[in-house]
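Researcher: We're teaching a course module on how sequence relates to structure. For the next exercise, students receive a sequence and then see the predicted structure as tokens, so they can try to spot secondary structure elements on their own. Here is the exercise chain.
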Amino acid sequence: MEQNDIKAVIVNEKDSLFLIGEIDLYVESLNEKRAKALIDEFQGLTKINSFIDMKPILLFQKILKESGIQTVMRREVNERYTIDNFELYIENDKVDEVIPFLTGEKLTDKKKILTCNKVRFAKYYVDLLAINSIDTIIIKKKDSDFHLEEIHIYVDDKFVSKAGELIQSHKGLTLFKSSEILSEIERDEELLFKNSIKAVIRKSEKLYNLYVETEKIGRSEEVLNAEREWVSIGSFSNVTNAMYYKSILDLEGIPCIVFNDVDSTFLLGEVDLMVDKKYEEKAKELIKPVK
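Model: And here is the predicted structure for the students to work with:
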């Protein structure tokens, strides 16, 4: 670890008299993946691929075996996660032989149909294609610090058209939100994921689109609304007026609600038009001409 500029600490849990027990080696969490890769390399193995489903890795392993390249598969169990990871290793001196397969150059009769930047996105599409009897091969691309950059999904040439149609249809998902700001969409997707709601981000020409499970549209709204900081941009004595202005903001993609704290049954009394605080200034500008 020290030779590779990774700070490490040894914790000796052995009994001082009988030397019974284990000695643990710790590194900073940000160096965990790189440290494990160095240990594997020291032991003569290099990890070349991994995924949370076994079949895409098995199919990749089969392709390498047919080309005379032997590999070792491990099932990595991590107490922090409920899902296991299936990892594929190669002997260090065989790495150069595998690179053309990892780049897709030697994946004959296969075509890359999608690139994802998160494992859970790839998992959704792998499951979607599997349900429709289309096998996939997963290849992960990582940077020099072993952080995930991209996940490439390959299918047989004969299934390219069908797979493309399934992916574009977002089967089981409904368009929930669009934004020009990727960080905003990623924040919402992460929040939905933490609340066990499956969501996928896809980019169109100028927008980032967030798709969620069709049956959980209402629940998705509840989750995101609960996290927003709402501010009032106007009070109205007539709910019809408030709903009219709300429709203007809706067209601009500004999160807004009509709130009545007097009589929720008949909407009597003052009603407030509330918006997400992040959009307060923009919302005020939009409704100013008609107020």
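Model: If you want an answer key for the exercise: The radius of gyration is 26 Å. The mean pLDDT is 86.
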